Amino acid sequence: MAAIDVLLSLAIPALILVHLLVAPYTKVEESFNIQATHDLLVYGTPTENVYQRLASQYDHFDFPGAVPRTFVGPVLLAGIGQPIIALVGFQYAQLIVRGLLGLFNAAALLVFKRNVESAFGRSTARWYALLQLSQFHVIFYASRTLPNMFAFGLTTLAFSQLVGHPNERTQVWRYRLAIGTLTMATAIFRSELAILLVAITLHGLAYSQLSLGVVIPTFLIFFTTSLLITIPIDSYFWQKPLWPELWGFYYNAILGSSSEWGVSPWHYYFTSALPKILMNPLSTVALIPYALWNPSTRKQAQPLVIPSLLYVAIYSLQPHKEARFIFYVAPPLTATAALAANYIFTRRAKSGAFLLASVTIAGSVLVSFGISTAMLVVSSLNYPGGEALSELRQLVTSTSSSDLQTVTIHTDVLSCMTGVTLFGQHRYPPNDPRPANEITFNYDKTEDENTLRNPSFWEKFDYVLAEDPTKVIGPWETVGVVQGFAGIELIRPSASSKSDVESGQDRVFGRGALVRKVKDATRALTGGWWIGPRMKPKIHLLRKMREGEARRAVAE
To answer: Of the candidates 13, 308, 6, which has an alpha carbon nearest to the alpha carbon of residue 139?
Structure first.
C-alpha cells in the first residue's frame, strides 16, 4: 500500500478525533445516550432493589424524553470505556466514550473504503477518501451520541457489502450480511431504517441472484437476535417490558407526533439536506448523475445509488425532517461520486474537456475542505452551556476560600441543552474518594415554571447559569457571560470597535473572548475590516450576594 493510501486511511479517524477535541460538548439531542453512559459508569447495574436504585440514581427516570431509547449503545460504550477511563481519569470520560463511538464509525468507513478499493480500484478509493474527508457533517457527527450515529456504523458496514463483486455467489452472501446488519440497526437503534432495509432487499431481488428463500431466514435470524439483545436490556433499565424502537415507530409514524418538532417541505432532503451532507456541489449536480449516465460506471453505481435515493424519497413522506436522519446514505453516494471523479481524472490527458473537469473536481475538493473547516469553527461556538459550566468550575476553584467545601449550582434549560452533562458536572464519580480540600459541586436542573417563580427556591444556590438573569430572583451579581454564535457579520472600518456587550461591565468567558481577540487583531491589520462569527450573550454566570456584601469588580 502506498504512503498516500495509508495517510488517507489514517486521516479518517484522525479528523473525527480532531472534530471531537475542537467541539467536545454535546447538545440536547445527544443527552440520553451520554447521560446513560455516565450513569452506567458511575452506578453500575444493581441486582438488588433494582427499581429504587435506578429511579433514584439514573437520569432517564427524571428526564425520560418523548420516547424511551435503547441502552444498548450506552452499555457498549460504558463497558469498553471503563478500563480506559480507570487508566486516564474520570475527568476525561466524556471524551473517551465519544471517542470510542467516533472510532467505531471511522472503522466502518475504513471497511467501506477497503471494499471500494477492492471493487473499483485504488484510485477510486483515494477519491472516495478525499470526498468523504471534505464533508463536514459525517466527520463532525461521527463521535456524537445520537441514536443515528450508533446506527451509522452498521449501515455503513451494510453498504460496504453492496460494493460490486464479480462473483454472483459471493455477492448473494454479501447481500445476506447487508440485510442482517441493517436488521440489527433497525430493530435496536432506528426503526426508520426498515425503509432502507426494504429498498436494499428489493434491489437485490431485482438485480442479483438473491431470493426470498435467502432473505427471509436471514431476516428472521438477525431480527430475533436483535430482540433478544434489546428487549431484556431495555426492560431492565426502564423497569417495564419494552422494545424501544417499537415505541419510537408508534410515536413518530402512527401518531405523527414528531411533527411537533417542526415540519419541512417534501423536497427538503433532496434540495437542502443531501447537498449539505455531501458538501461538494459537484457531487450532487455532476458526479453522481454522470456515474449513473456513463455506461462504464453505471452498473457499479446502481446498487449504491438506487436503494439510497429510494430510502430518501420514501422517508420524505414523513413531515418532520432532519439531516441526521439521512446521514446513512452519505458513504454510498460519496463512493458513486468517486467513481465519476476517478473516471474523469484518469482521462485528463485525452482531451481538454477532461483536463478542465479534473482541475475543477480537484479544486472543488480543496474548497470543500475549507468550507468544512470553517463550519467546524462555527459549530464549536454553539455550546455555551458546556463552556459556562467549565468556566464556572474554574472560577470557583480559583477564587473560593480554602474553607469552602460545597457549592450548589442551578443550570437552566438553555445551559442543559447546549453542553451541560453529568460528565461535565462531576470530575470524579460521586461516591469515589477525592483529593483533600476538593470542592464538592451539587447541581440542580429544575425546569418547573411555578417552582422557578418561588423566591425561596433560589436561596439554596451559590451560583446560577442562566440565559435570562432577570428571571433569577434575589440578590445576584453577574460575574461573567458566555457568548454563542449568532451568525456571520461584516464590519466596516467606520463601525464601532465595541459591541454592546463588549463595552459593558460583564467579563466574557470562553471562546467568545477568543473570537473578540481574533476580531480585534484582524481589524488592526485590515484597517477596521472584519468578516467572521458574530457573538452574542447566551449564558450568564451569576453569583449569590450575601447580606451586606458589595458587588465585586471583575477584571478582564
So the answer is: 13
